[in-house]
Design a protein that fits this description.
This protein has about 300 residues and is of the alpha/beta class. It has 6 helices and 18 strands. The protein folds into 2 domains: about 1-115 and about 245-310, FAD/NAD(P)-binding domain; about 135-240, FAD/NAD(P)-binding domain. It has helices spanning about 10-25, 60-70, 135, 150-160, 180-190, 290-310, and strands spanning about 1-10, 30, 75-80, 80-85, 90-95, 100-105, 110-115, 145-150, 165-170, 195, 200-205, 210-215, 225, 235-240, 245, 255, 260, 275. Strands 1, 2, 3, 4, 5, 6 and 18 form a 7-stranded mixed sheet that branches. Helix 1 runs parallel beside helix 2 (about 60-70), helix 1 (about 10-25) packs parallel to helix 6 and helix 4 packs parallel to helix 5 (about 180-190). It is elongated. The mean pLDDT is about 95. It is an enzyme of class 1 (oxidoreductase).
Length: about 300
């Protein structure tokens, strides 16, 4: 079977693309390696998505998107893509479970949390180190947690963590936050939040669970080790220092810049019939609202490309 559109990724961009493509009666397949949702599925509150009210969360928003996609007849499959052949009129997408052919491909693979990159981080991920406050906050009920970062996400997730932890310390390498002023104000007014300025994490230690953390002041060079409270036995470390685009699969296949896929405003890559949408592409704002817009544009342009290429 040759699909009209294969969408790789089922975050907001991929789901929006699938929705618009299938609603246009295009034979559409969405391939996702895990469950649908991407980063937003791990977000506790979605307050800035237009029309998202009544305590909307990432998971509830995604559930509604998935329902719409299914309603319009898009096929969805869970598979890990290993290789892509994007040249020529028919694109070939090779997964662990099967091979998929398509007239057009929409890349919506998103981005993954950037690790601190210090010793002990990888070994203790899931054992005190977490990149998802929504997923793991409850594990640190009435304990201390440390958030690494100073942008919107770091501060917002830090505030969310105060619902569970008895104290949240935000560790930032600079002496002021990069988060929006409105978010900063809320954090500074939160009695449970403290700040550790001009500081980076050098090492995370523990025998099967986080027990201590070595930090360094970037201005004075002072190094100190922070130990878990004796009664707690551990503490949480939540890095929120940006993202790495999930584009390894497309290296050398499409034009990129700093690991992100380059598109025009119509979501077209440099390869005819191949589009990109959402966090995976070069853009100024990575939010749910821009991801869904990207997906919609990509699907409309995919239909236009199909009509021009295959129906003439």
């Amino acid at each position: 079977m040759i699909y009209d559109v294969v969408v790789i990724g089922a975050g907001p961009a991929g789901l929006a693309a699938g929705l618009y493509a299938s609603r246009s009666r295009l034979k559409t397949l969405i391939v996702e390696k895990e469950k649908a949702g991407g980063q937003i599925a791990k977000t506790a509150e979605v307050a800035n998505y237009p029309g998202s009210i009544e305590n909307a969360t990432g998971p509830t928003l995604i559930a509604r998107m998935v329902e719409q996609v299914d309603e319009f007849g898009a096929e969805r499959v869970i598979d890990t893509i290993k290789e892509v052949e994007l040249e020529g009129n028919i694109k070939v997408i090779k997964g662990e479970k099967g091979e998929y052919q398509a007239k057009t491909v929409i890349i919506a693979t998103g981005a993954n949390p950037r690790p601190i990159g210090c010793p002990g981080e990888k070994e203790l991920t899931g054992r005190g180190v977490s990149y998802c406050a929504t997923c793991d906050a409850a594990f640190f009920e009435d304990m201390e947690v440390y958030v690494v970062g100073g942008g919107d996400t770091a501060v917002e997730e830090g505030m969310y963590l105060t619902k569970f932890a008895r104290k949240v310390t935000i560790i930032h390498r600079r002496d002021e936050l990069r988060a929006a002023k409105s978010i900063q104000e809320k954090a500074f007014n939160n009695d449970k939040i403290e700040f550790m300025w001009d500081t980076v994490v050098e090492e995370i230690k523990g025998d099967g669970i986080v027990e201590s953390m070595v930090v360094r002041n970037v201005k004075t060079g002072e190094i100190k080790e922070i130990f878990a409270d004796e009664e707690d036995g551990t503490f949480g470390i939540f890095p929120f220092i940006g993202f790495i685009p999930a584009t390894d699969l497309f290296e050398g296949k499409v034009e990129m810049k700093d690991g992100y896929i380059v598109t025009d405003e119509e979501m077209r890559t440099n390869i005819p019939g191949v589009f990109a949408a959402g966090d995976v592409r070069v853009k100024s704002l990575r939010q749910v609202v821009t991801a869904t817009a990207d997906g919609a544009i990509a699907a409309v342009q995919a239909e236009k490309y199909i009509n021009e290429t295959f129906n003439d």
